Amino acid sequence: MKELTTLSLDHNQLKEVPISCFSKLKKLTFLDLSSNRLQRLSPDMFSGLGNLERLIVENNPIRCIAPRSFHWGPKLIAISLKNCSLTDITIGDFQPLDQLVLLDLSANELTRLDPPAAIPPANLSLDLTGNPWACDCRLNNLLTWVKEHKIHLYSKEEIVCAFPKSLKGEEATSLLRSQICPC
């Protein structure tokens, strides 16, 4: 078992992952915990997975991502948190993941996403589609950060405003700053 590189625990009705459950799986590079009933992510869940490159946690009712939940994974290149009912998260939660290439936050309940102060990894791609975005000054800050750091947005035409009412249904990435942030 210590030689295991891929582990798929998807569709197992898992409610939690015991602390240090994976600590002896030092060679694990792929972990799929999708379509379970996980409600919380914490750094202790993943301790010992320093070689993990891909983490799939999509389709879980995650309510809480504890600070530093991803700081154990210096080799992580892809994280999928698609369809996890997330309402509040910051991109800073995923730093210092210098190798991160894909962060999938699609199909959640995010209305805002604050950009971090730190410089993101080179070649980072974000999937932010399917969230009910509040098109305001905070979103403008995120879009400015994305543009300044040349971050690739998947299906940017599907990043659509849900709020305010006057912008509902508008493609957020095509709006002018004066439309989003009139102040």
From TrEMBL:
Pfam families: LRR_8
PROSITE patterns recorded: LRR
Entry-linked SUPFAM superfamilies: L domain-like
Highest taxon, organism lineage: Eukaryota
Keyword entries, A-Z: Leucine-rich repeat, Repeat, Signal
Residues forming coiled coils: none
InterPro entries: Cys-rich_flank_reg_C, Leu-rich_rpt, Leu-rich_rpt_typical-subtyp, LRR_dom_sf
Domain LRRCT: 131-182
Name this polypeptide is given: LRRCT domain-containing protein
Source species: Micrurus corallinus (Brazilian coral snake)
